[in-house]
Amino acid sequence: MSKFTSISKKLIFVWGLISLAFVLFAGISLTISTMKGKKIVEQERNKIYEKNFGEIKLQVKKEIGKTSEQLLVTITKSGKPLIIDYRLPTDQYRLSSLDVDDSELIPVKGNMYRVILYSVVYECDAEVAHYIWCLKLTTDMNLVKVIELSDMHKIEGKETIVFGNKIIGLPSFDNFEYEQFLVPIEITISDSIKVTPMLNKKSADMIKSVFQKEAQKRIRILRERANNEMLEKYKGSVDKFDEAMAQKVIPY
């Protein structure tokens, strides 16, 4: 009996050691996992994009707070600041989950530069829109133009050529489904920003006719129902379509 008791005590002792080791292992694993998780979150909250142009260094720092997200641009020349923490006005365009993934810096004269930032908006890890920020740096930084595109492509040379699609949507309501129109756009950037629809006259007339007919039909019904909130959305869609179909040149 005493021999059996002795064996039982040893088994209980061994089982206790195994249980303790398991608890310690689980605790250590959980701690490491939590630390990794915190590190990933911290990296996501403080992303930094950098690119060098000879002696000039451009940096875009992404800071994510509890209620806001900021993209701060700093440019230095030979280590001396030309601009520090210029805040991209993303809130004016109601943008979030925005990352800068490329840039260009075009010297003008002295410490004057054209600065182009290419950014992308993600939803569920998928690219949904590209935004091109055309900025001008003198004694301070000024935003000249923001261009939104989908399916963006870029050709670099003496002048930068960007092309992609402008997406214009007619919102759904009642029995009307969401309707989407695509306008292919070419953008040439040098000492000016030239925006041109990539459509011949026949194609442009066709898409304009279809869009206007569909938009006017829906707007007429919304006016009859005095649905002012939806009317404002349709006014925005019509303005966006008219802008996409017009050729324009913006001094840069």
Helix-strand sequence: HEEEEEEEEEEEHHE
Q: Count the domains.
A: 2
Q: Give the fraction of residues assigned to helices.
A: 25-40%
Total helical elements: 3
Strand percentage lies at: over 45%
Q: Radius of gyration, rounded?
A: 28 Å
Backbone shape: globular
- List the uncertain runs: 32-43
What does this molecule look like?
The protein is α+β, with helices and mostly antiparallel strands and 252 residues long. It folds into 2 domains: 46-155; 164-252, no CATH class. It is built from 3 helices and 12 strands; from the N terminus they run αβββββββββββααβ. It has helices at residues 2-45, 201-224, 228-245, and strands spanning 48-53, 56-64, 69-77, 80-87, 98-109, 112-123, 126-137, 141-155, 160-170, 179-189, 192-197, 248-251. It has an 8-stranded antiparallel sheet with strand order 5-6-7-8-9-10-11-12. α2 packs antiparallel against α3. The termini are far apart. Residues 32-43 have low confidence and may be disordered.
Comma- or semicolon-separated keywords:
252 residues; alpha+beta; eight-stranded antiparallel β-sheet; four-stranded antiparallel β-sheet; 12 strands; 46% strand; globular
